[in-house]
Amino acid sequence: MTREEIDCVVTHHLNAYESGVSRFNEILAARLDTPLLGLFDDALLCYEHPLLSFKAAELNEAEVAWFESMLDRRSWSPEVFLHTWDDTALERRLLQSATRVWAGNHEVLALVAPQHPDVRLAWTPGLLLDQRTIAPAEIKVFSFGMAHKIQTDEFRRLRELLEATGRSYALLVSSANHATSSILEAQAVYEKMLELFPTGLYFLGNLSDLAVFNEMRRATFFASFFPGGARANNTSVAAAMEQGSVVITNLDRYSPPHLVHGETVIDVHRASRLPQDIATVRSIGTAAADIVASLSWERLAQKMRAAGDRVTP
């Protein structure tokens, strides 16, 4: 590798699923066949010709001070990708150290070209890499609210039950952002699930309540599994049953009594097969919606208010 070749891509935010620039950097690093490093990664000291690709305006005061001190210490020849230009002191400093500048758009090019001898126009391609069409399937299973660790045994058993039907199926997975610390974590869960479902698996990312509601209504089954078993405070199961979804889950002695295998839910470990006729599926969904109607927000608030009532002498 010559000195003029980019030997790593440097990003500020490391969560590529919460920052478009970071996602761009992740894909670009892969296409350049170079490592992707965080701005404050000590390994950065080992590289001579990095591509610095981040929005300088997003660095806080401490990060700016740290990076400027690194620029003072380093004798490297970085390239810079400017996604925006705010004419900050740090941006001007980056121009001084850059051997080549990539302008992300024509506006940046016009503002920066007079200030550096080698400014070249670049662009940002679309970030949608998974462009599969969700194939039609006879059985559609939806799952959301997955924690950072999947219940491997239960999902493996679900796959066995689905394959035993002899019908085509699709498993659609949403992270539901309240259940994971980051969508990057959710993506890692999805990649693990690919080992269990090499075909027919689709990751939908974070969905709004509206989107989750509609996916539940379209699905044949809703799947959600837990350490030990389902509990009375598992909101994903409650939400699905409220909509009349047929829930496939796992039960144990601490599962609430209204979760009855074959009547209001399907216990993935007790099931020998999945119901396939429409009448049976609908009857389980209807029974589920009926039983949880007594477990509404109104009833919970009423119970808690009643507990606070005091008899006055």
List the defining traits of the structure above:
six-stranded parallel sheet; 313 residues; alpha/beta; 12 strands; elongated
Characterization of the model:
The chain is an alpha/beta fold and 313 residues long. The chain is 36% helix and 15% strand. It has helices at 20-32, 61-73, 89-97, 106-112, 152-164, 183-196, 209-218, 235-242, 278-292, 297-308; strands at 8-11, 36-38, 50-53, 79-82, 100-103, 119-121, 139-144, 169-174, 201-205, 221-223, 247-249, 266-267. The strands form two sheets. Strands 2-1-3-4-5-6 form a six-stranded parallel beta sheet, sandwiched between helices. It is elongated and about 75 Å long. The relative contact order is 0.08. Mean pLDDT is 87; it is low at 177-181.
Helix content: 25-40%
In total, the number of strands is 12
**Helix/strand structural class:** alpha/beta
Tally of DSSP helical segments: 10
Q: What general form does the structure show? A: elongated
H/E series: EHEEHEHEHEEHEHEHEHEEHH
> Strand sequence of the main sheet, in spatial order?
2-1-3-4-5-6
- The chain-level mean pLDDT equals 87
| Terminal CA distance | 89 Å
Uncertain segments: 177-181
CA radius of gyration: 26 Å
- Main pleated-sheet profile: 6 strands, parallel
Strand content: 15-25%
